[in-house]
């Protein structure tokens, strides 16, 4: 199966290369010319970075349907500028920007920006259209690499939505030195302390809580688990070998993965070798840690004083924006020109204002706000903790709290906007209300007095429906498929039959079923109180369940475990075992091999499945009856004759396993079970089959009588077969009375 | 100090057959010619802990131990000896003597520890954190894990080295996880809730629980009452308390009323006191327990603390024959400050009344007890020889323990072996890694390796 899959993948990849080569040649020419220079300075490798300008997720939909995530404004500056400015100042000399979704938009932006002509940072783009995951992207880069060998050594791998101000040079040096000592140290990943909320178990960036284990001395990463909030699995399982080889292991719950990695070239080839790696963490890191590929190791580097965060979802958009306003990301703050942005003027209480912004005297602009160029704020407006872009016009008596208004937005009088994201060119008509967590995509028009319900996502584009069933949605990139969607959807602008009131335009996207509960977690809005109360309640309940799961004592635990496994496994195993025995038996019948041989085979099965002799008896008998039932027959009489002949023929086989009374009872039980469940036609023949078994000396009368005794206490429904056998049992009992004394003794022994 | 100390002295440990016998229970096994129990008593006395209960399994053993105690230290310490049934386990033993316990905190010590870690420090740590339980941890002793030594093939097969897996918080004050015994062999499963509350956890497999605990009496008694199946302190009670520390059940409301009010009400008071005292003393940040408690109403927590002994400290339990040999060797060797004897310039102790024949050498790290006689041309190296032994000529004793009143014939060679009291070795016996039961006579001229001599 694996080989087949590989074949397919290979073919697909070749296709990719063919399609994409042309587009990339331009970008590579420059690199070719420099190779000779670089070989001279082998000792000092250029600092290079790969920037993935695509997040390969759908978390920013519907906004990312129209614009790539890296170009979305973060406090009025596109995200990618933060990343590039940081890489530049950290001493990176060459950056490869991998574009996939909306690649033309990204490339155009870069061409028009000052980055293309930057004196110290060489920006190159790599374009691909078919990559649906970071894994694909790296494989694509690796293939290119084989032709051009632009990447000479260790490189920094970041995504285009990273905001950071950490120094990199020392870290790269550290990585290189470690690599020199230990060939297998192929990656260093950056972590930062950030304690997840004890209630929601997500970090302040809205990502799931992370459990990692690190060797405190070497900082080697030993365990990585990104935890979906899943209380059912309330435990972490550390492999025994892990603790054997490390006397001390540090387990963190309060760390955040910054998704900034220093990688050695081996990382690329690992992705190439493992074509099923898609996600950088879920597949690659896990693969290296768990599968122990070639003994490769990943190390961690904890940063303390510098900032690093990745915008993964709307909540992290909110958090990082606030961090920028609070100047944690210095020097990447709104009042400093770091990427050709026009710096704003910083006022008191963290108020950033463009010099030409027009504020009405009666407008109340509170702390931590950003107001962009050419924006007009009307009278009586109340603005708090919000970012307002360039060229917006805001009417009077508008309330804006904790929201992100992008560029050229028109907000008419009397609107209320709380904890929302409003994209470019949106029009919000008078009296409209945006409830918390709303996202309005580009050019949406909200009708007069319309109330947009909480957490709704509104777009002019209709929600694509087809990929809802797509299981690979998780890493199927939203935006990569966008081109197709767009052509399919054809920008249904004309449909004014809007869901946003009579004079509005836009569709409110349905939240797909599973995600509805999750919506509040990743939204820009803070988590409402009632949700928190709900979670607290749920946690209490969980704990109660939890307690019942946890065994009461260390010693009992081991016992309980072993009992459980003993109980569970055989249930599954028995099914397989039975089938195997049946197969063996059928072969014995077809090929006519001797009873001894069949016994030998069944014995070996018994050993390999760790079964009792009684199980063999049951399974063998089951196979015989099954054969009898499967043999064509016209009447019950014929069936009985078939069964009798099979049993007589193989009585040696059956007899081998039914030497004990218990095993014989097992056979009777099996017959009963079959009559009730799998082969109902045997039902009427129950007593006759029993009699046959008795006659061929497979069953002793003791066994039958014991079975009858046991059954006597059972429910009426269970007694059907007992009643059927009543005459036979009566006869047995009478026969028994003749040598009563002996039997009594035996019974006592039993 | 309002501490009551319980010494669990065991009975006739089967691990130590044939060293132990009806005459010599485990607690009275000699380490450098003193009963092992005396080391524990000295240690406790040095921390001014003098109110002791010695719990012995079995009436006979209790009589023996009691007899020794009354002769040895009745004047210095206030010692009660209590006998409990055999094989009840450590928790069972405590259950049996529960009515003797009255102090607020109980210090529980295993009777077979030879150590120089101050139990007072453990008790103080316990008080400082107002913990429910405090366990003493120590690093593996220098001489290596007691059971994995090279000698004694017999021991090897018995038990592999048994470490504990221990999870500590970042301040190394709280115990967040402990796995002992059979659980170590499996993968470690940690509860996320505790890790989430603490943020960081350090998992150590190089520390071991040294069987010295401080318990809050009310907690201990409640756990013992509530969980009648618990047999072992280390394997049941301690892991249970650690596991439930964030949702404490030991102080649940209904229980406390019945438990003469020393449960819940007291806990509330105590926790208030703690918070208050911390505010007053401005001691430190509140522990994660308090943060957790305040974050979620209606939650109760209790604290499980640890005292981690310094690496230079010595701590070994005498729980196997190998350990017995190690302890004897260490006490007259590397850890000789424990023995309480003063060593000669040759790093050995030869009692003035001992007689040495001509050309006999007693090397460093040796001990020769009172009234023993050693013949000519003998060599004793790194060994302990008891009182009133008679050793012939041309005898070699290396790495061995010879107890009291042993007779060794001429030309014997003893290596890595234990010869119990009153045993007799006839001429030219060669023993290597052997154990000889008390009073046994080994016939002349045999050569033995890794054997146990005992009357069947």
UniProtKB/TrEMBL annotation, chain A:
Localization of this protein: Cytoplasm, Cytosol
Record's compositionally biased regions (Basic and acidic residues): 1-24
Principal location listed in the UniProt entry: cytoplasm
Location of the W2 domain: 567-742
PROSITE patterns: W2
GO molecular function annotations of the record: guanyl-nucleotide exchange factor activity; translation initiation factor activity; translation initiation factor binding
SUPFAM superfamilies: ARM repeat, Nucleotide-diphospho-sugar transferases, Trimeric LpxA-like enzymes
Ranges for region Disordered: 1-41, 463-486, 545-564
Domain of life: Eukaryota
Family to which this protein belongs: Belongs to the eIF-2B gamma/epsilon subunits family.
Name of the protein described by the UniProt record: Translation initiation factor eIF2B subunit epsilon
TrEMBL record, chain B:
Residue span, EIF2B subunit epsilon/gamma LbH domain: 352-434
Record keywords, A-Z: Cytoplasm, Initiation factor, Protein biosynthesis
A GO molecular-function descriptor: guanyl-nucleotide exchange factor activity
Pfam families xref list: LbH_EIF2B, NTP_transferase
Chief localization: cytoplasm
Domain Nucleotidyl transferase positions: 5-149
InterPro entries, per database record: eIF2B_gamma (IPR051960), LbH_EIF2B3/5 (IPR056764), NTP_transferase_dom (IPR005835), Nucleotide-diphossugar_trans (IPR029044)
GO BP field: cytoplasmic translational initiation
Subcellular compartments: Cytoplasm, Cytosol
Cellular component, GO annotation: cytosol; eukaryotic translation initiation factor 2B complex
Subunit structure, interactors included: Component of the translation initiation factor 2B (eIF2B) complex which is a heterodecamer of two sets of five different subunits: alpha, beta, gamma, delta and epsilon. Subunits alpha, beta and delta comprise a regulatory subcomplex and subunits epsilon and gamma comprise a catalytic subcomplex. Within the complex, the hexameric regulatory complex resides at the center, with the two heterodimeric catalytic subcomplexes bound on opposite sides.
Family of this protein: Belongs to the eIF-2B gamma/epsilon subunits family.
Function description: Acts as a component of the translation initiation factor 2B (eIF2B) complex, which catalyzes the exchange of GDP for GTP on the eukaryotic initiation factor 2 (eIF2) complex gamma subunit. Its guanine nucleotide exchange factor activity is repressed when bound to eIF2 complex phosphorylated on the alpha subunit, thereby limiting the amount of methionyl-initiator methionine tRNA available to the ribosome and consequently global translation is repressed.
Protein's recorded name: Translation initiation factor eIF2B subunit gamma
